[in-house]
Structures are given as structure tokens and as C-alpha cells.
Design brief:
Layout: E1 5-8, E2 11-13, E3 21-22, E4 24-28, E5 31-36, E6 50-53, E7 58-61, E8 63-68, H1 70-76, E9 80-81, H2 87-99, E10 107-112, E11 135-139, E12 144-147, H3 149-155, E13 166-170, E14 176-182, H4 184-189, H5 197-212, E15 216-224, H6 230-242, E16 249-255, H7 259-264, E17 272-273, E18 276-284, H8 314-326, E19 330-335, H9 338-354, E20 363-366, H10 372-381, E21 384-386, H11 390-402, H12 414-419, H13 437-446, H14 463-469, H15 472-476, E22 495-498, H16 507-511, E23 517-520, E24 523-527
Parallel strand pairs: 1-6, 2-7, 8-15, 9-10, 10-11, 15-16, 16-18, 18-19, 19-20, 20-21
Antiparallel strand pairs: 1-4, 2-3, 4-5, 7-22, 11-12, 12-14, 13-14, 17-18, 22-23, 23-24
Helix pairs in contact: 1-5, 5-6, 8-9, 9-10, 11-13
């Protein structure tokens, strides 16, 4: 039997339990057919077999991002980028957009970070008082946003408006500044103009192309319904994979508020669609460290009495978890602060005590601030942590400013996860951080902040350990280690091609690495032109 695709003369890093390395890999009908030495390939090559000389390059299992927001990321690629270094520059960019927009058009921006602004503050409605268009600017964490006076009026937000599990920031006179945190942002989201299905499909197409160019072959969508609504998002993804308009393999979570709708439509049945599986209930327990809304056990520095916020009471969260667990679903809960993580573990423990279940694989998304006791409980309860190593680089300086020094050794403590026998699944939380797993691997190895501070060096891990986070560990987090995450006969032919001798790279070399090729199911979906590879060979 001839192969559809053969890659030879390379270093095939399988990530299997024996850490095997081969010289060639052959793929047939989307799956790995054979691995071996170059001398073994002659009988595999037929008249229609595509053959690629790797020229010594490294092949690893396709990267898996275990926590990403596809719809938000896709639209953010076309929104106004707000990564300027001053509020004046940001206002100028928004004004430029307003100049070419209709008066009623919403101007949506993404990615501002007050920590990077020379003004050392959030923008507010007063900065945009000369612009009449509705303005909505999402902070990079997606847990806060700034709106202008037009939007405050459209949303009916005044001195009397209140919100549960959120904050409408006000000035000394009690007037809304335009800065909204956590669920206060939802007040505005509800009045924003709807997107068409084709706009949503174009956003997914853009983010898919963005991902595969970074070597990503599978994504865990961290909450269908978070951006728009469950049914529209599901139908867009379902139609696109059925139409083969996107190559990515998607494992989708569903926000818990849609659990009844999902049950009615049988979306949580673990049924497999082409490249799309739905199987997890997603919940939120707290906010973020940079926004000082994550629930922690000690006061935030320079913020006496502020320990963040829990989204639910202990009993409310236990009830939600019990309902989903009883129905047999995997559960993934956003929990960043140690207080929130403790609350989540209490809820998981209560559910497992009442309804014992082996191999539940419940997850804690982010699992940022831990301690030894929490890590011990996570191991005992067999919980999967899903951290974002890149955040140590991107936001580590803010964490140093906001958290007591005793907490720092337990922030995204990757080495401690491993020491406790946990299997952290690597992720980006894109668009919160760049989607590149290589940047995440660099950050996990180096633990260096954007300002050059070393952030708890004892939590550095080596390159192979970091690779496992974005391959086999991420596959296990979605019950898919039998079909992906390592390169073994019978598994899916999902591969990422990197430069020669990649396993010997330093953290800084990893950071500068470019993906050479991405292959999904034996089909090349991205390539950074090999010198001996003709374009028509892979189309």
C-alpha cells in the first residue's frame, strides 16, 4: 500500500512514552502509516505519493492550544489595534477610524494595557468626548472594557446602574468613567449590533490561518457563547468544518448558562463531527490578577482590603458543578486566584464524593496562583491545570506589582505542577496572549518578564517538558491522547515542522524560531518554503 505523503531525511520527534526519534514518517488516509529509517521508504512511494525531503529539519506532533477564543480572536484581527503607548495616540487611531465610518457605526478596539501607557491609567469616556460614534475598547485581558459617553447613554448606564459580579467604575462625583469590569461589560455587549453568519465565518477563517501559520493543528475553544451566543457560534463552526473551509481540529467548550439549550440539542453527547467535538461545560470562578479581580487569599499590594471577587458563593458553584458532573460532562472552570482555586476544588471534591467517576478529567483553566496544599489536592482529585506560560513574560511585571512576594513562586508554577505529578496542558488564551506555542515554550523555559526580570526561576522547565504541555498533555485534556499528541502508527497525521536540531535550542532560540510547515491529516496547510520544495508539490 502506497502512502499519500512521505517526509524523510528529518528528525521525527514522536513524543511517545519511549521518546522515540525516527528519520521518516508516512501518512495514509489522514493517519500515520509508518515511521522508520530512510531505507524503509522505497516501498511506500507510488505514482501519487507526495514526497518531501526535510533536509534535516525537526518534526513534532502538531501543536495543540488547550485554551483559546476563536471568535474573539478572529474578530480582533480586524478590529482597531489599541497597543499604543499613550492615550493620545490611542485617541488619534480611533479618530482616524471614525473619520472613515458612518456616524452610527460602532468603533471596536482591542488590546490596550494601561501598564504599557505612559499615562499610567485606563482611558476613559472623557478622552473620547469629541467622537460621537459608539466606542468600545476591550482591554487585552477581555475582563474589562472602556466605552465612551455615547455607549453609556445607549446602554442606559447612569449613576443608579448596578451590576452583580462586576464594577462600573465611577469618578468622585459618582459618574461612570466608561471603564467597565467583569460582568459590567455584558451590559454593553447586549446592545452591540449583531454579526452576520458570513462575518463570523470570515473571522474563523482568519484565525484559522493565523493558527496554522504558528504550527497549531488543534484548538480547544474555551467557551462557545462567550463572544456571541451558543447556537450561532456552533452552527458557524459546524458548517465550516463540514464544508472543509477550515483545517483546524476543534474541541469546544460550552458556557454553563447554555447547558439546557445544549442538552436539548444533544450538543454535549461527545458526538464527533468532522474536526469538531463538543464535550465540556465552561464556568468562571473569578477575574484577573492584572485587573485585581481574581480572588486571592491576601490583599493586593497597594490596595488595602481588596482580595478580588468570586463570581459565585460556595454553594452556588457547588450546585453548578454538581449538575454538570452528574450529567457526565467534563467541566472546565476559569480560576486564577488561590481563593478561587480552593473554591473550585471544594466544588469538584463535593461532586466526586456524591457521584464518584473515574477519569473525569475536570480542568482548572489558568490555575495561576496556587500553593502546596492546592497542588496536593489537584493531584488527589486528578484535576488538569491549563496554564498560559506566555503571561509570565507578557504580564509578569504587573503580577510582581500586584501580588505579595510569597505568592510569586506559585504563579504559573509549571515545575511545581510536574513535581506534584500533574500534567499541565499548554495554552495561550489567545487573544489574551499571542497564540504561538513557541513563545509559550520560551516563556516556560526562561521565566523572564517583558522588563527582563526573572520570575521565580525555580519554576523553569526544559524544552522537552514544555513541548509535552502543547502536545500529549493538551491531547489528554480533551480525551484525545489515543488519536493525537504524539506521532505513532494509527494516530492522526498532524505534524509541525521546525528547524534542524530544534531539541537543542536555548529558550531564546526557541523564541526566534519560525514554523517551517504545518500538516493536518497528511495535508500541508502552511509552509515557509523549503529550498527544495516546489509549491505545486503540496497544493
Amino acid at each position: 500500500m502506497f502512502a499519500d505523503l512521505v517526509l524523510y531525511n528529518g528528525e521525527i520527534v514522536t513524543m511517545d512514552k519511549d521518546q522515540s526519534i525516527y528519520r521518516f514518517i508516512a501518512i495514509k488516509n489522514d493517519h500515520i502509516m509508518l515511521l522508520g529509517t530512510n531505507e524503509s521508504i522505497k516501498g511506500l512511494i507510488g505514482p501519487k505519493t507526495k514526497v518531501i525531503d526535510l533536509e534535516g529539519k525537526t518534526v513534532i506532533p502538531g501543536f495543540i492550544d488547550a485554551h483559546q477564543h476563536l471568535f474573539i480572536s478572529g474578530f480582533n484581527l480586524v478590529y482597531v489595534h489599541c497597543n499604543q503607548t499613550s492615550i493620545k495616540e490611542m485617541v488619534d487611531v480611533i479618530q482616524e477610524k471614525a473619520n472613515v465610518s458612518k456616524p452610527d457605526d460602532w468603533i471596536i478596539g482591542w488590546g490596550y494595557d494601561e501598564a504599557n501607557l505612559i499615562d499610567e491609567r485606563h482611558p476613559d469616556q472623557y478622552d473620547f468626548e469629541d467622537i460621537e460614534n459608539p466606542i468600545f475598547l476591550n482591554r487585552y485581558c477581555a475582563h474589562a472594557a472602556v466605552v465612551n459617553r455615547t455607549v453609556l447613554e445607549l446602554a442606559g448606564i447612569d449613576e443608579h446602574t448596578t451590576v452583580k459580579n462586576g464594577e462600573i467604575v465611577r469618578d468622585a462625583n459618582g459618574q461612570a468613567t466608561g471603564l467597565l469590569k467583569e460582568q459590567a461589560v455584558d451590559i454593553v455587549r447586549k446592545i452591540m449590533p449583531p454579526y452576520t453568519k458570513e462575518q463570523m465565518k470570515e473571522a474563523i477563517k482568519l484565525v484559522s490561518e493565523h493558527n496554522v501559520a504558528r504550527g497549531i493543528t488543534s484548538v480547544h475553544e474555551a467557551g462557545m457563547g462567550f463572544f456571541y451566543n451558543l447556537l450561532d457560534e456552533f452552527h458557524v463552526l459546524h458548517e465550516m468544518v463540514q464544508e472543509q473551509r477550515i483545517p483546524l481540529r476543534i474541541y469546544a467548550m460550552i458556557l454553563d448558562k447554555y447547558i439546557n439549550d445544549a442538552k436539548d440539542l444533544n450538543l454535549l453527547s461527545q458526538e464527533s463531527y468532522p474536526n469538531l467535538r463538543v464535550g465540556t461545560i465552561k464556568m468562571f470562578a473569578d477575574g484577573t490578577i492584572s485587573g485585581k479581580t481574581a480572588a486571592i487569599s491576601q490583599d493586593y499590594k497597594n490596595s488595602p482590603g481588596n482580595k478580588g471577587m468570586l463570581m459565585y458563593s460556595d454553594e452556588e458553584l457547588k450546585s453548578k458543578v454538581l449538575d454538570a458532573h452528574q450529567l457526565g460532562f467534563q467541566i472546565a472552570i476559569h480560576a486564577i486566584g488561590d481563593k478561587a482555586i480552593e473554591q473550585v476544588l471544594d466544588a469538584y471534591e463535593a461532586a466526586l464524593k456524591k457521584y464518584p467517576r473515574k477519569d473525569h478529567r475536570h480542568r482548572i483553566e489558568h490555575a495561576m496562583v496556587t500553593n502546596n496544599k492546592l497542588l496536593e489536592r489537584m493531584k488527589k482529585l486528578e484535576i488538569i491545570p491549563v496554564p498560559q506560560p506566555t503571561l509570565v513574560h507578557q504580564a509578569g511585571d504587573v503580577y510582581l506589582e500586584n501580588l505579595d512576594s510569597s505568592m510569586i513562586p506559585y504563579v504559573f508554577a509549571n515545575k511545581k505542577y510536574l513535581n506534584y505529578g500533574l500534567a499541565p496542558a499548554g495554552s495561550s488564551d489567545f487573544p489574551i496572549t499571542p497564540s504561538s506555542p513557541l513563545l509559550g515554550i520560551y516563556a516556560a523555559m526562561c521565566r523572564e518578564t517583558a522588563k527582563g526580570e526573572i520570575f521565580s526561576s525555580e519554576n523553569r522547565i526544559n524544552l522537552y517538558e514544555a513541548l509535552k504541555m502543547y502536545t500529549i498533555n493538551a491531547a489528554k485534556a480533551s480525551f484525545e491522547e489515543n488519536v493525537k499528541g504524539s506521532l505513532e502508527i494509527g494516530k492522526l497525521g498532524d505534524l509541525t515542522v521546525l528547524p534542524s536540531k530544534f531539541l537543542e535550542f536555548s529558550a531564546y532560540e526557541v523564541r526566534e524560531t519560525k514554523v517551517e510547515m504545518t500538516i493536518i491529516g497528511g495535508r500541508v496547510v502552511y509552509h515557509n518554503k523549503f529550498s527544495t520544495l516546489l509549491k505545486e508539490e503540496i497544493l
